[in-house]
Amino acid sequence: MNNKYLKIYNELAKKIETGEIRPKSQLPSENQLSKEYDLSRGTVRKALDLLVQNGYIQKVHGKGSIVLDINKFDFPVSGVVSFKELSQKLGQDSKTILLELDILQGDEFLMEELHLDKEDEVWKLVRVREIGGQKIILDKDYLKRDAVPMLTKEICEDSIYEYIEGELDLKISFAKKLISVEEPTLEDKENLDLAGYNVVVVVKSYVYLEDATLFQYTESRHRPDKFRFVDFARRSH
């Protein structure tokens, strides 16, 4: 039957999900799995490829199939990705909860961060991001109102980037990011399921449009056990 590989996939996936197979451990080789399940190496390879595709394992040259920590989500440092795009990629139930939507003017901190004049207006949004039933990100966003004239609760709980690019026809181009580890604030403790952790990972982002206009400053506060911050680096010569 063509779905024989699913038997291997489902059994290995379940063992990884329940912790019977631990993160960073190595799966048996294709030959070993082929003998264990009495199936061809081609069928085994198809099951392993599906495990790779769904984020359970990583194939490492010379080491075989290494089990990934499925309780951590890869957060791309170098990319500009919305929470909606990230959660769709993860394939997990997610939810955005809007705590605050307001317009600020003359805030000295924001005037410096966003290069504003005193009369310039800024949207302030505070949102909690929930994945798998746990509140694990607190996002505090500030957007120039001359770039984004109107925001609603519905837009904020769906995708602001989708609205900006789809409805306002603006192109979001690049961002500068600063990452630090800090003690949780009272606001963090009130709004996140910190599960006893006494630090949060803070990502501060300065986001620019295609014409190099700085239009957004964001402070994204993450529970530390749930994310891997990944990047690709190349050595220059």
UniProtKB/TrEMBL annotation:
Record keyword DNA-binding present: yes
Gene3D superfamilies tied to this protein: Chorismate lyase-like, Winged helix-like DNA-binding domain superfamily/Winged helix DNA-binding domain
Sequence ranges assigned to domain HTH gntR-type in this UniProt record: 2-70
Family annotation (PROSITE patterns): HTH_GNTR
UniProt-listed GO biological process terms: negative regulation of DNA-templated transcription
NCBIfam families named among the record's database cross-references: trehalos_R_Bsub
Name listed for the protein in its UniProt record: Trehalose operon repressor
MF annotations from Gene Ontology: DNA binding; DNA-binding transcription factor activity
Keyword set includes DNA-binding: yes
Keywords noted in UniProt: DNA-binding, Repressor, Transcription, Transcription regulation
Source taxon at top rank: Bacteria
